């Protein structure tokens, strides 16, 4: 099949790791009969923003919507105030394309050092399905400062009427931020988690929340989870609080098979997931809308202090490329990438500093590409 892949290298180490990712994808396409990949690069990121004041323009979104998938490096740059690029590009794309699933496999490969004592690849192999468009990411909130008593009282009544909040506004300054869970939003991502469990032969789905404190949003989440679970009687289910999960990921990672979690907690527990699979250098993610343009990226950030040094580990990005292929229905090609990564890791000769080696970013890309050829 022929696919058009948008490439957004982005900031910091983004361009270096995405170069290796594209290298591997090109090689896979070369050796896979019938697979054709056309890459179209987009300039969005700090440099483009500083030069043009543009984040992602309307016509850019239009162009991107003609693509089969997006392959993203990383966003964030010390020259731009924190949040501008993240919200204006990364979150913008996730929301615009309604990529409501953030799929983050947590898989420890043989030969990769794991910080958990006594745990190996047989213990760390599960999926986190993070909701990706709601919760505390909806950007509803505000600040109030230095208003007159009368104005503050008006605001208080607005908060009460609109959000059911009773905020003590008789202060110098307050800030608030609202989390939103919708029935439809919860249902589609929870259903995706159960379908994934079925497809991957997993027997248990764990729902993670903090319904003992944030009763409104996660009360609804739990209700929907219970309802959807009924359609999958062969799959075992459980509810866990996020604080407990933070402990159990470390203590008993082998318990987990598929974890479905609202956006914010999903963000946090997938960094934990990354470190138990060997570090941020190995953790890929997919921002998925099963019916529209999806976007694949390493879950690490732009790591400005490592940028331009040919030092960063490109394996997370290469594995994001594997997920991209799988999403496009190119299962054989996807498997080939994973087998090549596993082989390179197993041999242990070409590794970046984070895995105890001295190889550069491009050496790892070359090694995986060569392995793809060898295994094909
Ligand atoms: C991630 C990142 C983003 C998030 C940031 C950069 C907005 O941490 O993809 O996990 O919070 O989702
Ligand atoms: Mn994160």
List keywords for this structure.
two-stranded antiparallel sheet, 376 residues, alpha/beta, binds 3-isopropylmalic acid, globular, 43% helix, Isopropylmalate Dehydrogenase, 12 strands, ten-stranded mixed β-sheet, Rossmann fold, binds manganese (II) ion
Topology:
Blueprint: E1 2-10, H1 14-31, E2 36-41, H2 46-52, H3 58-64, E3 69-74, H4 84-96, E4 101-107, E5 125-131, E6 135-145, H5 149-163, E7 173-180, H6 183-200, E8 204-209, H7 215-229, E9 236-241, H8 242-251, E10 258-261, H9 263-276, E11 284-288, E12 294-298, H10 315-327, H11 331-347, H12 361-375
Parallel strand pairs: 1-2, 1-3, 3-12, 5-10, 8-9, 8-10
Antiparallel strand pairs: 4-5, 4-11, 6-7, 11-12
Helix pairs in contact: 1-10, 1-12, 6-7, 8-9, 10-11, 11-12
The structure holds 3-isopropylmalic acid (IPM) and manganese (II) ion.
Manganese (II) ion (MN) binds next to helix 9.
In the sheet with the most strands, the strands line up as 2-1-3-12-11-4-5-10-8-9
Bound molecules: 3-isopropylmalic acid, manganese (II) ion
Compute the number of strand runs.
Answer: 12
* Poorly predicted runs: none
Write down the CATH topology of the largest domain: Isopropylmalate Dehydrogenase
Corresponding CATH superfamily of the largest domain: Isopropylmalate Dehydrogenase
Radius of gyration: 22 Å
Order of H and E elements: EHEHHEHEEEHEHEHEHEHEEHHH
Q: What structural category arises from helix and sheet content?
A: alpha/beta
Output the number of helix runs: 12
